[in-house]
Design brief:
Elements: E1 2-9, E2 16-20, H1 29-32, H2 41-48, H3 51-61, E3 65-76, E4 91-102, E5 108-109, H4 112-120, H5 140-147
Length: 170
Amino acid sequence: GSSTTFTMKGHGKKQDFYVCSRNVCFDTPEKAEHCYYDSNIYLEMSEKYHIKDVLTMIMDANKDLEFVTLQGETYGDGVQKRTYGLKNGEHDFMAFNLIFGHKGEQPERKDSITMTAILRLYHIPCVPVLNVSYFLPDTCEELLEYAEGKSELDGEMREGIVLRTHDGIN
């Protein structure tokens, strides 16, 4: 897949919406024309999931926010090598971070359960949560063994796992 980030800053008429990938920010229509893929998969996901509207609603409901950022992975046909079963130019998106930027505070990354609950309200898919009570094993071998298995997305071999704390900090 390809890293995809959406950010909304500001309130009311002074809102700025950004669609970004690892090395580029599509903050103007001219930049949106230049994409690494045959089509602009980042804008495609933004439109498919109405991301600008969703982030605006989140901002409007939380007046103390300076920004809200949604990070995830865009994947599918023609994006990297693994298609996760998508064909014929199909693409999809899965969120893995939801970050709230409160005025005068450090940004707050929502934990995976809270992020999933919030984004479910807007029909935005999130990466699967495999285990909410996992404890790190004593050895690296045990951790590697746990990481092996089939992907929840397509039943093929997993590319890996991500471990996070419940407080959203790590």
